[in-house]
Every structure is written in structure tokens, then in C-alpha cells.
Amino acid sequence: MDRQNTGVTIIGVTNEADGDDFDKQAFIEGMSTPISHVLANPQELWIEYQVTSQPTMVFIGADGSTETHVGGLGPQGLLERVNELAAS
Asked: Is 14 exposed, middle or buried (CB count within 10 Å of its CB: 0-12, 13-18, 19+)?
């Protein structure tokens, strides 16, 4: 996905099963388009947003509304959703 100044922030949340902090950091640094990740207490976010598996995406609108999508969207699907959020 091309980086665009959309006013939308993307944050990755790790899973305890993803390995230790070194493994998680290596994965993050190897991403083709790096994004910020939550490494401390990610399970709190999993519980708060009722995430049960990866990949899951939780979209939070400017009004605080949430939409959960279980499964991958792919780069084009994610870009389309980000553009929709930026336009609202």
C-alpha cells in the first residue's frame, strides 16, 4: 500500500503466540511498509475489541464507531477501506 497523508493511522497489534519481543521486532522491521505496532500488553486490545484470531482488522471511525473484519483484506482492500475512512 502506498503511504498517503490520509489522516488515518494504522497500528499493528501482536499476538503472544508470535514469539518473543526479538522475533516480533524482527518481523516488524522486515515489513515492506513499516507500521507502528503495540508490543506491550496486546491481549488487552484483543479482549477490548473481541479479536479471536489473526488476521483481524478493527477499524475505528472518528466518531468512535468500530467495524471488525476477520481475515485479510489484501493491499487493495485495505487501501479502499482507508480511503473510505479518510473521506468520512
From this structure: buried
Model pLDDT, residue 38:
80
Domain range for 65 is 11-87
CATH code at position 46: 3.40.30
Q: Where are the beta strands (DSSP E) in the chain?
A: 11-13, 36-38, 56-60, 66-70
Verdict on whether the full-model pTM lies above 0.90:
no
Residue 55 belongs to a domain: yes
Instruction: Say which residue the cell 515492506 belongs to.
Output: 32
Q: What is the pLDDT of residues 15-52, one digit of tens each?
A: 777 778 888 888 888 877 777 778 778 888 889 989 88
